[in-house]
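HUMAN: You are asked to prepare a plain-text protein record giving the amino acid sequence and the backbone structure tokens, both parts labelled.

ASSISTANT:
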Amino acid sequence: MSPDYENHAGTRPAAWRDDLTAGDDSLFAGRPEPVNEYTGRTLTYEVTGRIARITFNRPERGNAITVDTPIELAAAVERADLDPRVHVIVVSGRGKGFCGGYDLSIFAENGLEPAEGAQPAEGSVLDPVVQARNHNPWATWDPMVDYAMMSRFNRGFSSLLHANKPTVAKVHGFAIAGGTDIALFADQIICADDARFGYPPTRTWGIPAAGMWAHRVGDQRAKRLLFTGDSLSGTQALEWGLAIEAPPADELDARTEELLERISMVPINQLIMAKLALNSALLSQGVANSGMVSTVFDGISRHTREGYAFQLRSATAGFREAVRERDEPFGDWKRAQFEKPAGESKPAEPEA
């Protein structure tokens, strides 16, 4: 392809905002477009203009995490990262909230007969029977079998952090427990003012495996949350620096689109360089080490005397009842601990 000196970039206003695939001088000239939409077991993927939209799609279960979630999320992020049309990736959830955490009925309630996942797992550390046996209170626990499972979830979720392109989490309703492991890996969080963020399982049977809280809100505030299992409203998340915006719920869609539009006007190469430069500082703080340590401790927390008591209570009385008994003494059963200003609506309730 020979250069066209009569039609160079300087002859067009703001040519730096041209789409990466536009023009005869594009590296992608004449090449077919990548697949721009598909539906998986746990999410949907769609490209509109310069925005890739990943949407968790298990609303009947509060978009609870299954063994398929990290694989499908990482695959969708990779697809968007490689698509020359996409400038920014947004992750959100259908139904009442963003993500209510792990589908813990797999182990806490179903005993030795957990639900099967869609990914081939028989005979591997992901085999649900193997993991159920490894959670048997009367058997020997292998911590590295546990770690092999949980670290795989972290790798999938951290694709949001390690993607070359900017990632945005749009949170409405709730991002609770494992749901925060996903949201906190995004470059930007925008949430409704009545959203709910928190990790109540630190009261028993869980440590945030992603290890991102201190990196996002600082040491003291992270400890304030994880020492109590308390939750933040969207308004408080904004005040603490966890979210960059927290508009009223009925304005969340419009405000998110404004943010995505502004990011998408910037050339992809500029966005990638800015993210890599800023990520270098974040990664130097020890994000990988935090995730490793937290994942190990998350496994330990499910195999203590107290963790087994919670698991057995879930199997006996049901998971929701065990959660109620865990949270009611803290006065925040199904609500954010930090009250919102008078007149604002009650936070939505997670499904799982």
User: Anything to note?
Assistant: Residues 337-349 have pLDDT under 50 and may be disordered.
